[in-house]
Amino acid sequence: MPANTNKGVPLTIYLAEDQVAIRETLIAYLTTNPQIKVVGQAGEGHQTVEDCLRIKPKLLLLDVDLPGLNGISVCRALASAAIDVRILISRLIAMPRR
Fold first, then answer.
1. Is 96 part of a structural domain of the chain?
2. pTM attached to this predicted model
3. What angle do CA 5, 39, 51 make, to 5 degrees?
């Protein structure tokens, strides 16, 4: 996670993940840190782009396999809009139980 160089100002994070349980778990974990503020969340790509253009978070935690617009298309849309946001892309893969 990027260092927060603005002392006293929380790092604003937007979370884009289509699996609700994972999204809620990440939000619960992130909000335990007073230097982090989750400013939005979505489960699909179009909403993610719309919200990020409006909210302008400092960091976007982005699932690559979003419905609607996938994570790569979200990155392209935000890059073409030239907003100042850092993006961390993730992809969760279910592992079979042994």
1. no
2. 0.85
3. 115
